[in-house]
Design goal:
- By secondary structure, the chain is an alpha/beta fold.
- The strands form 3 sheets. The chain has a 5-stranded mixed beta sheet, with helices on both faces. The chain has a 3-stranded antiparallel beta sheet with strand order 5-4-10.
- The protein is globular and about 55 Å long.
- The protein starts with 7 loop residues before the first strand and ends with a helix.
């Protein structure tokens, strides 16, 4: 949508071939060709060095950045895996976006100081964040790495915890920016139940038959994200939307009470930074291993 209005839009993806296919499809819209530009940016959120490099690449190529949408997510991974010692769901859904966003903050802040700017950071989360245990904490890496293997649908429980981290981080980032008197708006949202993962389920053929009947199409599922990224209403009503959690379609929603906790948001931020200081950044490639950790905490669901 923004490319049709003249913006340069980066598609940050792992797979250049798939990104190029998506760009070619989007460029069938003549207004994008005439007014804007689409570019590929290599970003693998499971590779923390890649996330840092991608941020640095934007800083070297661009003099401003108006909108950042953190949309990628790991949903289905049946067996717990660990990337440089971090649970894969947390690595991809929280740590990767944290590194990428923090790397881009200087440019976002610079842009927000320009006349007429309207800078936004958007995190696509999920109402699944409301299903985490009330006792969830993030004081240590071990608490971030809870694998929930003692509960049914343990992979979904891991997903819920990572989406909870998205909302916590978004709200803590907004608090910190607001304390700095920054005009940047940070929003998190639930896009709705969107059919983007049928092929990744344990029964893909069955899922591809039933999901269109009970899930939104990807097009409809993008509406709330587009509203968060581009609606003029957010600039007109900053007090209502800064730090807000949105629900479909394009409405103010309510995050869980736990997600509003300032102490928990600060705790997640501090632990994330501490983990990243322990040389994780310096891996050129992610290393994977499988194990089980802290089943005692996972029983508290």
């Amino acid at each position: 949508m923004e490319a049709r209005k003249g913006a340069r839009v980066y598609l940050a993806c792992r797979d250049e071939r798939k990104a190029s296919e998506a760009i070619r499809e989007l460029e069938k819209d003549e207004k994008i060709i005439e007014n804007g530009e689409l570019r590929f940016l290599r970003l693998d959120l499971a590779d923390f060095a890649s996330a840092k490099r991608a941020g640095a690449e934007i800083l070297t190529k661009e003099g401003r950045l108006d909108i950042l949408v953190n949309n990628a997510s790991l949903l289905v991974s049946e067996t717990p895996e660990y990337i440089n010692g971090i649970l894969d769901y947390m690595a991809v859904n929280h740590f990767g976006p944290f590194i990428f966003t923090q790397a881009l903050l200087p440019l976002l802040k610079k842009t927000s100081s320009l006349p007429g700017s309207d800078v936004r950071v958007v995190f696509v989360s999920s109402d699944a964040h409301k299903r985490v245990p009330q006792t969830i904490r993030f004081k240590t890496l071990e608490e971030l790495n809870v694998d929930y293997t003692s509960v049914s649908w343990d992979y979904y429980a891991r997903y819920c915890a990572s989406k909870f981290a998205n909302v916590l981080y978004a709200k803590e980032l907004q608090r910190r920016l607001s304390r700095e008197k920054s005009p940047i708006s940070v929003l998190s949202l639930h896009p709705g139940n969107v059919n983007t993962f049928a092929s990744s389920t344990p029964c893909p053929r069955f899922a591809s038959l039933i999901m269109p009947w009970i899930f939104m199409s990807p097009d409809v599922g993008s509406y709330t994200t587009l509203f968060a990224a581009a609606s003029p209403l957010i600039k007109e009503q900053p007090e209502a939307f800064r730090g807000a959690y949105l629900k479909p379609i394009a409405q103010l929603g309510k995050a869980s009470d736990n997600a509003e906790r300032e102490d928990l948001g600060a705790e997640l931020w501090e632990t994330t930074e501490n983990v990243l200081k322990q040389s994780v950044y310096h891996h050129s490639k992610p290393t994977f291993h499988r194990t089980q950790l802290t089943p005692d905490i996972s029983r508290r669901r």
